[in-house]
Amino acid sequence: MTDPRIVKVLNVFHKLNADQLEAVEERGCDVAVTAGAGSGKTYTLVARYATLLAEGISPRQIAAITFTKKAALEMRSKVRDALIELQNQAKGDSEELQKWSDLAAKMDSARIGTIHSLCTEILRAFPAEAGIDPRFEVVDESVSKAYQHQAVEDTLKNLVAKQQFLPLLKNISLFTLRDILQTLLEKRFDSVEVFQTNIDNRKRLVQEFQNRLGKPDFQEPIRELKSMSQSTLIADGGENLAGVLLEVRRLWTVAEAALGRGDPVACAVALHDLRRCLTLSGKMRDCDSKEIYKALQTNFDLHLNPLTGGKKSDDEYALQDTEDLFEELLPLLREAFEEVHKAYQDLLENDQTLDFDDLEYRAQQLLKIPMIREYWQGELQALLVDEFQDTNRRQQEIVRAITGSQGKLFMVGDPRQSIYRFRKADVTVFRSEEARINREQGHVIDLKRTYRAHAPLLDATGNLLVGVINAERTSAPDYYIPYTPMVADRVDPDSGYNSPHIEFVLGEGEDAESARPQMAKALAARLIELKAEKQFLKWDEVALLFRASSGFPYYEEAFEEAGIPFVTVAGKGFYDRPEIRDLINILRALADPMDDLAFAGLLRSPAFGLSDAALYLLRQTGQPYWTALQNDASALSSGDQLSVGRAREICANLIPMVDRIPVGELLKLVVDTLDYRSLLATADNKGGEPAGKVLGGRLWRNVDKLLLDARKTGQVSVRTFLDTLETLNDAGAREGEAPAEADGSAVLMTIHKSKGLEYPVVVLADAGRTRRGPSENVYLFNELGVTFKMERSPMLYKLAKELDVDQEKCEDLRLLYVALTRAKSKLLISAHCIPNEKAGIALNQWAKELVSATGVATQEIAKAAGKPFESPLEIEYPLRFWCALKDNPILMPDLPDPERKPIPINNQIALYQPIGGFLAVSSEVDISQGWQITQQKGNIPGTILGKIVHKAIQRWLFPDDPRLTAMLETESYSAGLVTSEQRREVTERATELLNRLQAHTLWKEINLAQERYSELPYSYLINDTVENRVIDLLYRDAGGWHIIDFKSDTIHSSVQKEHLIQVYAPQVRRYKAIIESKLGISVSGQLCFLDDQGEVSVVDV
Fold first, then answer.
1. Is residue 910 scored above 90 in pLDDT?
2. What does the alpha-carbon distance between residue 444 and residue 609 come to, in Å, rounded to a whole number?
3. Nearest C-alpha neighbor of 597 from the set 613, 611, 615
4. pLDDT digits 0-9 by tens, 188-247
5. Distance between CA atoms of 711 and 707, rounded to whole angstroms?
6. Which of 202, 499, 568, 1066 has the most Cβ atoms closer than 10 angstroms to its Cβ?
């Protein structure tokens, strides 16, 4: 029976189906929910959270773990929306209304975040027991990578100087050893664990051979072979085949004898020779001997060749010397790893920082202390974990330690969508936890209904996935996840989407290089046809999904030529192209010369080309790079001395121009001063052709576009411009070079980026891309220990590589599942092919597997001679095939105006556009000075103090946040406050103003806002002149939308205050007019004076 306390919540979540409702209501046991693509898992998770609140559990007693910060924000927002709806339903019941209002007010402090945010809280609660400084900061991945690189380089220098490491350096190249140490460091706590594993390598190999030779696949044909005499074999298959099989039988006996005496090397050598026997050419007559021969050959290649070799004539033998050398070098590698681990740990500790691995490992160790584990078990009444298929073993242990007894854990995930192995995710964790819950009488629920694809598309897609993922496997390890079908909620497709719902669009060429552009052009042509047929209406209904970003350029070029607007998400979109990234980094360094990361990038850029050795020597001074640049450079090489002198002179001329001239002008000055176009001429020179003839001079064009974008923003503040780009980067947006049309752009993204998204039309793009087989220099497996590559690879390394390849293949199948299940209405597979005399056309990778799953022969596609045709699957849903032949130019259908209308370069619209476009308003007052203080203490300019306080409010940092001090110090440096007295004064004054604001009721109101936007930019037109402004703060609460314009003027009298209100009120009215006109919302406006005779005052405008 449903708990009466949650009935009202369930009314809000009235769309829950029976399985979802069961997951939401289940209590008293752990719950594992398998939620397939489009099954509404987030909706279910939020409903579960809301019902727990309804039962009286405080938000601080519930921890909800999501995979990303973005997902955490979305979940918090959805819970808050549900609470607002409950407030609206409770009108008239003051007690009920107060209950939901109080809960909504507490949501900002709710424990909704990533596993790393929870680990951070666990460590900060018990810093002494964790042995860490409670003020620690968490470094992001880019910084930790830089630290790791430094630790590896420093360690390698030390190893070279130590005699005991000579055997290691003699047998493993420095390049390989560097990569091995880097890999071990990236997985450092796993490395520590695995190095401590006591594995008898010989015994492990003997066991592996016994398992493989004992398989029925071998034992049955060998048993039959042993039962046949020489005369029987000759009579059955002839003398030649009989001779081969007799030798096979002898070598099998040798291999078994070697295993019997515990000699895996001798066994491997015998098996290698055995496989070399199975290389007969020519046709054999049908007989029992042939069946034995074929069975042994097939199963050897499947089970033994990866370990012993022999299939190819140049496959190397196993050697005892190699195995002995591996045993000798392994302890030395462990010592080298311990050195690099300590060096990295020291770098982190010196900066009082932890990386993500630290957070997990230290939290895991801390929770082993009974008192601390019991504290957290008492602190939390419920733990909800989203995307559980992407967790690892250490995270699993943390979850188990926190939940303790049954009934607290609610985990949601889909092992079919586990695609983050490269981030250490382990799909077997979900299965083992699900099995534990089932074993301990918990509840396991499968959400089989999908609200994404309609039934015909779902069934047709399922047929493809069954044919590829569920293809017969000789073994099913726990990391292999078979495809299981779902049930569609939508029986019929949306209006306009006609059958066939799955199409194969292929492009032919003599080779992959010529075929891939053809495939992209073919897809562009087909998409234009579909849009003309009104199967979709807007380009933003289309998403192209890629296994890797290397396929983007083919489609970008084709879409540009066809006039299809597109946005590339992740990968190398416009703002992530090397030449653009380089210029943006130079801007960042000029805006803040004390930003060492940016300044190092500036010095290493093609513009200056400082060597790594020079950067290292500059770093040894202990000073920031810009400061070190002013010192004597005689210790550097002559080339580096010239580079340092040039960098010093150019930066000294450019830094004073920052924030004094528009960003567009500053960027042009940078490009001209550095002679950047000459640098690009070299970079864009392919095959000796001058830049501008290659890819349309893309690099030059990109720089021109960046200059245009910067000029169009009209911004003067470099930091504001960089913040704009950072916002775009955080959103993952990258701009295509074609101008976007009014009704949106097609999206190009990797499959990993598409996780959790859905689109009406999905294209599996570049589906024939050849997958690079994994071949690491070192492997870590608990069951195999640490294994590494040598000139001749030891057998354990081969064994580890085989395991890694199989795990990678299984994840690749899951990646395909994710890609194909993003489609709501239509699915297209785009791939290249090349002519093949026997098969008609030859396909690769996913394209080959998917076409094979349809049952349509490639010869049929070739026979169509470039014309589209339909062919049904085994059930009633047809497929469409079209192969654009290599010799047939693709005629691009015309797009209706204005889609194909050319846009002159001078009128292109920058990716970043301030909201609202243009609005004519009167100019009552000059507000060009923006944030300003009219009175100041000491020698600190009012504008500097105002900007620094403004930056703190923008980031919502206040004196109770340990990050504020570092931020104030950094901003003081950036503002040019070089003396400690100046920095101390501005820090004290800023802290005073921020303390005052935090104590005011306005701060509490803003902090609890349902939505909050800082530094909101827009543009407006005054007397034919475009001026750009930024609204300090726009937020929404239960009472509606509000604009706050913060002022730090020091007010001494009411007369002065009235004057300032008259000065500033028109700009707030202007803000209101812009927002109400362009966003169509009603908004209030207020001035907030932070120093009104020592107090905060708020004035309605």
1. no
2. 59
3. 615
4. 999 999 999 888 999 999 999 999 999 999 999 999 999 999 999 999 999 999 999 999
5. 6
6. 568
User: Could you give the CA distance from residue 560 to residue 558 in angstroms, rounded to a whole number?
Assistant: 5
**For residue range 39-98, what is the model confidence (pLDDT) as tens digits?**
999 999 999 999 999 999 999 999 999 988 888 888 998 999 999 999 988 888 888 889
> How far apart are alpha carbons 886 and 883 in whole angstroms?
9
Q: Is the peptide bond before 896 cis (omega within 30 degrees of 0)?
A: no
SS3 string, 532-578, reads HCCCCCCHHHEEEEECCHHHHHHHHHHHHHHCCCEEEECCCCHHHCH
User: What whole-number distance in Å separates Cα of residue 791 and Cα of residue 862?
Assistant: 45
- Judged on CB neighbours under 10 Å (0-12, 13-18, 19+), 732 is middle
Q: What is the residue-wise DSSP string for 594-633?
A: T-HHHHHHHHHSTTT---HHHHHHHHTTSS-HHHHTTS--
Global confidence as pTM? 0.71
Task: Provide the percentage of residues in the chain whose pLDDT is more than 90.
Answer: 54
- The answer to whether 589 touches 601, Cβ cutoff 8 Å, is yes
Residue 821 CB neighbour total at 10 angstroms: 25
- Give the amino acid at 249: R
The SS3 assignment for 636 reads coil
Q: What is the pLDDT of residue 914?
A: 35
511 is written with which tokens?
């080779």
Question: CA triplet 364, 368, 370: central angle to 5 degrees?
Answer: 140
- Say whether the peptide bond before residue 500 is cis (omega within 30 degrees of 0): yes
Q: Categorize the per-residue pLDDT at 908 as very low, low, confident or very high, splitting at 50, 70 and 90.
A: very low
For the chain, the first-to-last Cα distance in angstroms comes to: 54
Task: Answer whether 548's CB lies under 8 Å from 769's CB.
Answer: yes
Mean pLDDT of 4-32: 93
State the Rg of the chain over Cα. Answer: 33
User: What is each CA distance from 235 to 229, 231, 239, in whole angstroms?
Assistant: 10, 6, 8
- For 266-283, how does the pLDDT look when each residue is reduced to its tens digit (9 = 90+)? 999 999 999 999 998 888
Q: What gap in Å lies between CA 834 and CA 507, rounded to an integer? A: 8
Torsional sign, CA 59, 60, 62, 66: positive
108-137: pLDDT as tens digits: 889 999 999 999 999 999 999 999 988 899
Region 1034-1060: mean pLDDT is 89
Q: Count Cβ atoms within 10 A of the Cβ of residue 643 and give its class: 0-12 exposed, 13-18 middle, 19 or more buried.
A: buried
Residue type, 1004: K
Tell me phi and psi for residue 546, to 5 degrees: -125, 145
Length in residues, the chain: 1101
Report in angstroms the alpha-carbon separations of 51 from 2, 10, 58. 11, 8, 11
Render pLDDT for 381-432 as a digit per residue (tens, 0 to 9). 999 999 999 999 999 999 999 998 778 999 999 999 999 998 889 999 999 9
Strand 1025-1037, strand 869-872: pairing: unpaired
Backbone angles phi, psi at 524, to 5 degrees: -60, -45
Q: What digits encode the pLDDT tens for the residues 835-859?
A: 998 888 999 999 999 999 998 999 9
Distance between CA atoms of residues 796 and 321, nearest Å: 14
Cα–Cα dist 860/881, whole Å: 10
**What b/e readout covers 674-706, taking b as 16+ CB neighbours within 10 angstroms?**
bebbebbbeebeeeeeebeeeeebbbbbbbebb
- Those residues with Cβ within 8 angstroms of residue 132's Cβ, 6 or more apart along the chain or in another chain: 123, 354, 362
Q: How far apart are CA 764 and CA 816, in angstroms?
A: 9
- Residues β-bridged to residue 1038: none
Reduce the DSSP state of residue 741 to 3 states and report it: strand
| Residue type at position 992 | E
Record the tokens describing residue 824, joined without a space: 């709501």
Q: Work out the burial of residue 742: count CB atoms within 10 Å of its CB; fewer than 13 is exposed, 13-18 middle, 19 or more buried.
A: exposed
